[in-house]
């Protein structure tokens, strides 16, 4: 075979190999379609996970703020309230150090995560189920739950209710006080709660919509 013929044969073989390399338009479209379907299926899972992280982190931050208020009350030998309000449009909770009922720069505070808001006690689900789990049994303890979402710690580090210039730990019937705060993620409508029992134990809870019950997270 002549040198010219060999070059032609080699060139033809290389051209055929090049034609077989890469993707055809149809194959590329199939890959893109599969990728889009996979992304569409994964997006709700990722979104739900992010929303759950926002909810849980807010509950933990609020529980930590309660613990801080408790320690400050003992340290300063006074009572402190943990208030909720909005700051620049965002829901926050703060330790009202000067007891003036409003947030002042420098007071310990936390900001609820995006989409997470605090709810009134009357709006929370399965309140009875939660009470039976975080409060001691018996009518005395069960009757101590305060309807307000403003926990107060006295100088002994226990929940109290302000009366004049004092903050007693028992009501007129001899019942100790307890508090709870419901929080909800408005993106997926899931609930968590932070409770404070008469012994000042702070716990976080998650709500199961399927069983309509609360489960402890700590």
Number of strands: 9
Helix content: 25-40%
| Average pLDDT score | 87
Determine the structural class based on helices, strands and strand pairing.
Answer: alpha+beta
Number of spatially distinct domains: 1
CATH class: Alpha Beta
The whole-angstrom Rg is 30 Å
For the biggest sheet, the summary is: 5 strands, antiparallel
As laid out across the biggest beta sheet, the strand order is 4-6-7-8-9
Question: Which architecture per CATH?
Answer: 3-Layer(bab) Sandwich
Apparent shape: elongated
Element pattern in H and E: HHEEEEHHEEEEE
CATH 4th-level superfamily = minor pseudopilin epsh domain
Number of helices: 4
Please report which band the strand proportion falls in: under 5%, 5-15%, 15-25%, 25-35%, 35-45% or over 45%: 15-25%
CATH names the topology as: minor pseudopilin epsh fold
Cα end-to-end separation: 85 Å
Spans of at least 5 consecutive residues with low confidence: none
Overview of this protein structure:
Helices cover 38% and strands 22% of the residues. The protein has 4 helices and 9 strands, in the order ααββββααβββββ. A 5-stranded antiparallel beta sheet has the order 4-6-7-8-9. A 4-stranded antiparallel beta sheet has the order 3-2-1-5, covered by helices on one side. The radius of gyration is 30 Å and the shape is elongated. The mean pLDDT is 87. The N and C termini lie far apart (85 Å).
